[in-house]
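step 4 of 6: structure.
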Amino acid sequence: MTDKEHLTGLNIEQIRRDFPVLKRTVGNDKPLVYLDNAATSQTPVQVIAEITRFYRDHNANIHRGVHTLSVESTDLYEGARNTIAEFLGAPSASECIFTRNTTESINLVASAWGKSNLQEGDEIVISEIEHHSNIVPWQIIRDELNVSLRFIPMLADGSLDVDAAAEIIGPRTKLVAITAMANSLGNITPLADIIEMAKKHDALVLVDGAQSAPHMQTDVAALGADFFACSAHKMLGPTGIGLLWAKAEVLDTMQPFMTGGDMISTVTMSQSTWAEIPAKFEAGTPNIEGAIAFGAACNYLDNIGMTSIRNHEKELTGLALDKLNSIEEITIFGPSDVEKRGGVISFALQGIHPHDIGQFLDSEGIAIRAGHHCAQPVMSALNVPATARASFYLYNTEAEIDHLTDTLNQVVKYFG
Amino acid sequence: MSNDLLDDLYRELILDHYKQPRNNVTLPAANCAADGSNPLCGDQIQITLTLTGEKVEQIGFTGSGCAISQASASMMTEFVQGQSVIDALDGIAAFQTMMTTSAPTNAVGFDDIDALIGVSKFPARVKCASLGWKTLEQALSTNNGVEVTTE
């Protein structure tokens, strides 16, 4: 049976032809098996073409000139904003702010919303399973503004302790910042429950969508959150461009994050006034080609269909969990139910350090992540220094999972 | 089981030290100690040693981490046991030179350690191999007690 017939509706062979890097080999002429998608995804020719097309045909600064190239660049940049807004289900493109990545989006909220809205005694609630980018900015703002930072704990299978969340989120909570899908273990969080708890206490909610936006349908309007952050490079786009969606009425309560050109209304020697959103939060010349390519990536994903992509990854993850569990020495972290996890499998092989696993797999062409995945609180809760992590995307195949499984069996023999 | 690419990195001698680390103890009577770690990958090394005058009388290490970090630390303890502090510091410098130049040191007592030369071709792993040596340097220095990292 080919992958095309086997897996849910996606023509994988055709999709793979769009990704030139998947044709290369590594090491001793081994075909690349790219299983590090939770770190960064590969880029299809349709997206790469938009980057070269921009520099070949249009390159100019945006929002400034009356000349043709500047008008075209502005149209492409703002057109991408519209595309991404639609992809994420944002009611208005003006609520979509381009940033460098999810990390910058969260820093923007912590700093610009925090300083405009938090007072001593207020509480921010995050969770133990957050990526460092959704922990450290809040620690900084906690210390700066003398507010409290509370953590929703994680259960043994890596999922959030929802009962504890109900205790922790309370009248002092001003903001809950939570991941939609943990990058370390892949578990999908019960967002609807958490958002309901927050809303009961009139707290705002920030959703870290870095891992969910690439792999599941996003509808920020239906979600009921106030902020949503994601990065293009995990969703087939280029690095250096990300997005923050926020409700217009919330953005209007915030002071600017960075200041300078493009974000002002008027500047005199003594003071300045701010532009309307989104410009208020986009100081300086942005990553124009990155934004345009981000839009192209959303179009590519939309053409294939997020539901099909999610189904494909669910099937791959189920297969991978079965096959990997056949290795006696393996411990797989995170929930076993594919409905509750994305295409991310974090694992350990008894007595073998993840870096040695990663090195061996690399010599067989297989790219995985080995380390703490910027989630040290998760690692210490699991009592491991690091894990090995394989993560899938729309172009991965069952044959690649077989190769991973076979090679892990060799790893056990080599280091065991 | 063999793997050409990897065999250069994980030479048999290295895997041997990894599976059966030498001097894998904490010395209760130590008068010098240092801890080292690579937080990004989770490698950890603890070194204890007894200095008698200017001589490393005894050395022990404990730790956890990848094969390269633990094997390199194990080899380091074999090398340094019984050496003068000056020779130990020369050894640390020779090891670092090997990691950066990919040339064997031909240093006295380095016969086994030269097996780690393959690591220099894997830049991401040099910090693993260097951890034990940096930690030793720390233990021998006046700053002894401050944790080191090779990241």
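step 5 of 6: annotate
 - Helices of chain B lie at 4-7, 12-19, 67-80, 85-101, 123-140.
 - Chain B touches chain A through 23 residues (CB under 8 Å).
step 6 of 6: archive
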